[in-house]
Amino acid sequence: MSRLRYTIGRLLQAIPVLVGVVTITFLLTDAIPGDPVSIMLGPSPSAQQAEAIRAKFGLDQPLYVRYFNYLFDVIQLDLGESLYYGVPVTQKIMERLPVTMLLMTSSFTFALVTAVPLGIISAKRRNKPADHISRVVALLGVSTPSFWIGLMLIIVFAYNVSWFPATGLVMPWAPPSAIGGASNQIDVIVTSIRHLVLPTITLGTLQMAAFTRIERSSMLEVLGEEYVKLARAYGVSEGKILRKHAFRNAQLPLITIVGLQLTTALGGAVLTETVFSINGMGRLVITAIQNQDFLLVMGTTLMFGVVFVVGVIITDLSYAYVDPRVSFDGGD
Amino acid sequence: MTKDNNSQLIDRRRMLQGLGVAGIASVAGCSGGGGGGDDTGNDSGNGSGDGSGDGNQSDDGSGDGQASQGGQLKMALVKSPLEFDPIVLNDVPSAQVSQNIFEGLYEYDESTGLVPALADGEPEVNDEGTVYTVQIAEDATFQNGDDVTSEDVKYSFEAPVDEETDNASELNMVDTIDTPDEKTVVFNLSYPYGAFGETTLAWSIVPKSVREEDPDAFNDSKPVGSGPFEFDEWQEGNFARITRYDDYWGDPMPNLESVEFVPVEESTTRVTTLRNGENDIIEEIPPKLYSSVEQIQDAGIQEVPGIGYFYMAFNCAEGPTTDPKVREAVDYCFDMDQAVSNYVEPSGVRQYSPLPQSIVDDWGFDTGPWEQIPHSKDIEQAQQLFDEAGVSQDYSWRIIVPPDDKREQIGVTVSNGLQEAGFDAEVQRLDWGAFLEQYVSGSEDDYNIYTLGWSGSPDPDAFTYYMFGATEDTLGVTDGTFYHDSSERAKEATEKFVEARETNDQEQRKQLYTEGITTVLEDRAHLPAYNLKNSFGVKEYVNDFAEHPVDSFHLSSNHNNVSIDE
User: Fold this and answer.
1) pLDDT of B33 strictly over 70
2) Which of A80, B16, B40, B368 has minimal CB crowding within 10 Å?
3) Residue B462: which of B475, B472, B474 has the closest Cα?
């Protein structure tokens, strides 16, 4: 099976998954107690006004009719109109998604850049002080809530020493005119990095901790393989063994976990964006839920589903680049 | 304009839902709390305008020439504005921005009095209080250069009703509007609505031609008003920026060159942005962070009680709480003074009636008797009353609260008292959707007791008619107590609120309100709890910032003009 056919196959497999996401989200949203019209208009809208809103959003239709209408609209990439914002859901998602993507990309980069060396050092110096420190850091990272890390970082680095801003996110490609105090694109990028530092550490710490643990155990396993012992017997240097023989083979489990961590990161983004007032998908979800904006809730959940599915497919495809033994024929 | 629209009695800003600040009556007619619901809690609106304002700003009046010209102010709001057209907007942050772009015929002074803005002098009122004639200032212009005309005023008052916006109920007492000439407008009221000259005439005026040409653009990208600031740019969730309108027809010309409003929802983060200078002013300081703001060396707190009312109420339609004796027993189960002291102060103040202190002061109500009505905690007395009323010890109480920490704490305090008295009691914190659905059901399965908040314009009508007024428009809808139908005495009391609404004589109204409120408090349909302050953290280099009981704050007005020291 060619890589292209495999990719298409995986994309087709994603369709029932996404239909499932739509169905479950739709039913759960419908089951939430409370009336979105009450939230929208206050507790005593006129009957006429409430009726008009219900008709506009199809709330006067039976559940199954609404479901199939929604499914039909989703197929046409129409996610409806947000009750709260009064604009198409897709427009809000398109506004917010790049912000969250930037945050997630930077936090994953931070996590990988720190976790891989930490994991290798930990494995190489097993049961030595460096290993103990690395494991404690990983344990703390996994067990500390991201919002708490965010608040602590704000208190220390924004409140006490004022090194970094506590709010907002500047997109690196924003025009200088839109950023107060920026005179050129370099200024914009520097401002963007300053704004990114604290949220990146907040969101990336959990991933970093998880990746470090995986990297360590994976490296330990590979370093115990026969071919590594053979290389040592041949007198190959430890550095070369690590670089040439062990490192690449130890990355497969890490790639798997990177794909799966996407959902955790999206959940963390909700908290991180709230703490740092970043206007991304996380805050959009919170606003949607608080205001019982059911179309926005369904739209954002579907988008999270799409991001996750795409992440998993990319993970699968990237196996082949790391490990040539992986084929797309169903074998290994 | 007919009374049919009375059914749209409440808008989102009146129901104090737990977010956003304050009043904002001048722009959108009435005030209230926004939507959402975070822990930072709350909103409200009303007050006396006598806020302590212990910041270090000079509240010395209206741009006295000493202030520096220019400067860009950054202000952190709790939430992002959503729209700017005062005809349709219905949330606090939107009104906080919009009120700087638009003006009404009248605007609030430093407290709750109205002074002319677009109007030229005081309104002429006929003896019955049903006809108000207002002259528009000759030189008043919109930001597109057009004169402000009587047609614009007529349009601004009629459009909310014609378009059935959420704000329609603010203007439902207006029957017809005449425009005998370009600068004269005559309001004919359906009945002598006492609060018309006190609050309604502050309604914002929009240019008819501009708004009709493109209502959507007018709402989100090109609003045009007659105020001292003009709209510059808005990115939803990121910022909204207004700039000084250099050809402003009125006085004073703003000192500030521009103002950027930035939403920062998390309260700790908001305080941090004040300390590190990301923002020059932040709004809404929760109780737990007062000391943090006070410790910031180059900033202070300015605050004023808002126009709001937070309370605990009983289900008088079903269950044991239909008996006033049981409600009194519940009152004995806890100490509201202590609860407010523990969970609300210093961000709020104790309130003993539905009327915020500013209304009490303005009208000269004697609150002494009302303050004597609530009991201190006395579990034995409570148990005796429960026994007399025949409430079984097996009864399980259900208290529902909205998603707001302060109101939840009050609910928990009562629940603890009921448990001490030997009952099972459960506090359920509901999301707004579920809460709004349950608290008006009148079913004891849904609730025995609830906590809620209310905001309004600075007139007793806003705090009585909508919650207790027994009319077809309000029955069982705005009032989850159903008190009006619970007894003949209750009916008589609530009918006084309706009568007061349609009376022009202030002394007569005051008498009706006094009698009605006394009965409501003695019957304990409500247990008044507290009112929140509109609080702001303000940097020292910001001069003349004015917190306001109704409008939340003023930047450039008849009594202040904010500037920034270089």
Assistant:
1) no
2) B368
3) B474
